[in-house]
Amino acid sequence: MSFSITDSTVKAAMEAIASDATTEEKIVMLIELAQGCHKAPKTPKDLRSAVSLYYQAYELCNNDYPLLKARAKVGMAGALQAIPTAGTDILLQAKESYEEALTVMLAENIPQEVAEVQMNLGLVLQSLANHNLARITDSIKAYQAALKVFTWQEFPQEYAILHNNIAIAYLSMPLSSEKEYLQHGLAVQSFETALKHINLIDHKREYAMLQNNLGNALQYLPSSHPVENNLRALACYNEALKVRNSYDTPLEYANTIANKANVLSNIPDNLEHPELGNPKNLTQARENYQQALSIFTQHQQTEQAEIVSQALLEIQI
Fold this sequence. Notes:
Elements: H1 5-18, H2 23-39, H3 44-61, H4 66-82, H5 88-105, H6 111-129, H7 136-147, H8 156-171, H9 177-195, H10 204-219, H11 226-240, H12 250-264, H13 279-298, H14 302-314
Helix pairs in contact: 1-2, 1-3, 2-3, 2-4, 3-4, 4-5, 5-6, 6-7, 7-8, 8-9, 8-10, 9-10, 10-11, 11-12, 12-13, 13-14
InterPro entries: TPR-like_helical_dom_sf
Protein name: MalT-like TPR region domain-containing protein
């Protein structure tokens, strides 16, 4: 019989609260125990137990330990955010907790903690914006605030993720065609800004993520030069594929080759004679789609497999 992290952690929490430790020590112990459930959960129950432990720490704080109270709130929000089935009610609770914590933390000299909260708040706002329960512009503001601390020199991973999230937020904004062009341009700019500093040697995973997503943005960029943008997108996918492969990162690899297939199907074989069509590129696109379909099917990614299957049906060589 396998035990959840929670079984031993709940017992330890009860012992901590009953011990002769000071109130501050009890709060710190509860937060540390909650982090144990939160950072390596085996089941959603572990995350809910983490929320409970953070809340017990929060309650013990009263008004005597404002910073510990804020940290307990941040932990609670993070655990709520991580629950796989988190609906909008849970995300709204997480948003409220992050915002409450920020009002306290901004007054303290803890810039990295503040930036982490702003980054996570941005994610929550971005998710809520998809349900019309928050503004995507507030999500972008939270990410941009975090970038003041998470610079490429000191925090390259966070820097890359923030620029990626900002770009995706811009792409998700439902606007008129004129503004859509502007938002697409800002998204491309955000990816390109990050890629000035995130390189293939030092930050492989982030580099591949940014190149893949920049390729997607270029592929769908409203423009009077679609072939040029598609060629740039193709180059981005090829850069991502210097990192992504079917052995180490199969799902990321499948996503990229499916994206590459899509762009290949829209590029003429001979750029000087586009009227001759693109049977060679379509053949390569079909091969990429078939490989992506095989990987998605093998990993039970039903939705992606269906999308690729449909794309295959539409290819006519």
